[in-house]
Amino acid sequence: MSEHGSSPVIRTTRNAVAVELSGVHKWFGEFHALDGVDLKVMRGERVVVCGPSGSGKSTMIRCINGLEMHQRGKVVVDGVELTDNLKRIDEVRREVGMVFQSLNLFPHLTVLENCTLAPIWVRHMPRREAEALAMQYLARVYIPEQAAKYPGQLSGGQQQRVAIARALCMNPKIMLFDEPTSALDPEMVKEVLDTMVELAMDGMTMIVVSHEMGFARQVANRVVFMDFGQIVESAEPEEFFSHPKHERTKLFLSQILH
Amino acid sequence: MVNPNLDPRGYQPGGVPSRERRFRVTTWARANLFNSWLNAVLTLATLWLIWTVCWPLLKFLLIDAVWDGASRVDCLADRVGRDVGACWPFIGAKLPQLLYGFYPINEQWRVNLTAALGLGLLVPLLMPSLPYKTANAILFFGVYPVVGFVLLVGGMLGLEHVETRLWGGLLVTLVIAVTGIVGSLPLGILLALGRRSEMPAVRGVSIIFIEFWRGVPLITVLFFATYMLPLFLPAGWAINPLLRVMIGVMLFAAAYMAEVVRGGLQAIPRAQYEAAQALGLGYWRMMGLVILPQALKLVIPGIVNNFIGLFKDTTLVLIVAIFDLLGQLRAAFSDPNWAAPTTVATGFAFAGIIYFCFCFGMSRYALWMERRLNPADR
């Protein structure tokens, strides 16, 4: 919390655990969405999660900030274990930023107000300071001139970049991305990915659910492949793409890489 | 040659509209109103309808109306020697009673002051361009009810106590309607949130409350509050009859409001809730800052519909012997001094105009606000 107003922090890779999931299970009724997931993400690490739809990728990262509650196993985020305790969930959410697939900026607020809402009401930052911080992050995603507009007046790609800026305004320690480019028109995918690459270069801890394999190759330390609620394979990108070990991984890669 | 004074729309400065312009009006009518046989017939039928409705109304309210007089005889056709329309002197004579009921004449300035204060605080609150909204809202919702209570009821600060059974007319109508409107919206919002709560106890209580109050007619509520409730209260307990009715109307309206607000809440996509949660906003901040502003904006038409219905429903207090505007009017009809053939129609026309002004005002303001709040239109 001492980082208010400072320029975007360059986080050094320390050998500390940012997120740890061990033996996590989750059911939706009969459907076994997560079937014993183990995942450890270090600070400054960038993990890309891929897999067929319904494989549990989204459910897994939604368990990291308590949007879904796991039913068995353990989720520890930045040293805090997620339980039913609402205070703890909010504590975790303050430190974890998230960007969603659907464009879900708050339509009744301007771009600037979208960005300052949480710093003012959750971090209790003075308005002036929050606005300065927001403008700084909007400049970083290259849309400071749109600050006074409403989300409905922006393109999809611009909205998604505002969503990234909005999350960054809380100075999160970890950023989660749930298919951030899937809902975008193809010509807007690049501008969002470029923003994410820059964020990665600054050393942000990132867990990204995405099928953008170019992005994975470029920035990921590790690519994780999920299927049927399990982590099937986890490897460095070079290894993952050139020598996938598992049959299901090979099949999946052949399908998405043509 | 081009005449430099001639504006292209055919308007000559300092002169009558040119022939060119009059020509345009008839072409417009021909193109839009009489462009086919069916349209011509419809146009004529509409004109006939407007004529048959509006002309008698105009004739009654203004042209044939009697404007001066001291008693019934001035409004009698035999006496005036022509057809007689509205008998306005009747309204003039009864106006204090219609506005204040039996509120003592020497104390009526207190009612006027309360109304002026209320208007003085409400109007700037409703105008978005004016500053100091927070202070204004605190004054109107926090301070004003206390000041208004002291002024109207009295019995302190050297003000004479005026019993509520003496209150009447527009005063009572507005007191019940304003407290009902101001009270039912927040209560309705809480009930709507309660009904969608994940806590079974909260949800259960909200559902029972809403369904109970929606299930009984307002008349039953008023009867119960006035005649049954005192029987259940321990001896020596008495709640002021007007207050009982005010609370009854407020709770009744809140149940309807809750369902309107719930409709708005259901229209907000789940992604909005999740985005707010992911930013670390707790339940109340998520609702207050993200969900409710959007949900309430969606249901402004429904909310105002409820307000207007509530405003008009206040006349039902007549059946529990509280004399609102309409009640006072009926009392005034029984005055033999003003028993003329047109007094009743005049009285109802007057009440109708007053109710229409309030309700139409609310409706137009809401429409204007709705447009203003729609960022896509800006």
Tell me about this structure:
The complex is a heterodimer of chains A (258) and B (378). Chain A has a six-stranded mixed sheet with strand order 6-7-8-3-9-10, sandwiched between helices. A four-stranded antiparallel sheet of chain A has the order 2-1-4-5, covered by helices on one side. Chain A has nine helices and ten strands. In chain A, helix 3 packs across helix 4 and helix 3 packs parallel to helix 5. Chain A has 258 residues and is of the alpha/beta class. Chain B is mainly α and 378 residues long. Helices cover 69% and strands 0% of the residues of chain B. Chain B has 15 helices and no strands. In chain B, helix 7 packs across helix 10. The N terminus of chain B is likely disordered. The chains are: A alpha/beta (258), B mainly alpha (378). Chains A and B meet through helix 2, strand 6 and helix 3 of A and helix 11 and helix 12 of B.
Number of β-strand runs of chain A: 10
Tell me the strand percentage band of chain A.
Answer: 15-25%
Helix-strand string of chain B: HHHHHHHHHHHHHHH
Sheet with most strands of chain A: 6 strands, mixed
Q: Give the termini separation of chain B.
A: 44 Å
Which pair of chains has the greatest number of interface residues, and how are they split between the two chains?
A-B, 27 and 22 residues
Mind telling me the C-alpha Rg of chain A? 18 Å
Please give the count of helices of chain B.
15
- Sheet with most strands of chain B: none
In which range does the helix fraction of chain A lie? 25-40%
Distance between the termini of chain A: 46 Å
Specify the oligomeric state.
Answer: heterodimer
- Spell the H/E element sequence of chain A: EEEHEEHEHHHEHEHEEHH
Count of runs of 4 or more consecutive helical residues of chain A: 9
Poorly predicted runs of 5 or more residues of chain A: 1-14
Question: Which overall shape of chain B is indicated by the principal axes computed on the Cα atoms?
Answer: globular
The proportion of residues forming helix of chain B, as a percent range, comes to 55-70%
